[in-house]
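Researcher: Re-running this chain for the archive, since the previous output was lost when a drive failed. Same request as before.
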Amino acid sequence: MIQRKKYWIQPGFQTRMIMYGGILMFLSNIATYLITISFVIYQDKSSQGTYFFVKDVLGSDPVAVKRHEIAIPALFIAGILGFCISGLLGLFYSHRLAGPIYHIKKAIDETLRGKSPEVIVLRKNDELKDVAESLNKLLQRH
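Model: Regenerated structure tokens:
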């Protein structure tokens, strides 16, 4: 099995892919955040039983805290963590795409220079295997 150690194979492509995914994740988080906070604040204003009772760090008597005072920071932290995790996962997934694209482009460039390209061999979990197989068949004809 082929194993690549370098994750930034095509930095421009991978960066754009991660950026577009990150923007989508960011917009999704903002929409979820705004909808949830609007709902919680609306509920806090419209009803009486919207308090949590939280003990102080020092263990004193429980203090009444409105739901949005807990929900806003929790959602903000969850959004940041989700954004960071999705960025890392984006890097690993883009690696599955960038490697095959690099090998396919290399085979095409070698053919255009008149050289006989090597057979394109991809890793088990790489994407675009069908494209690589079709290109291998095409190059074997010539």
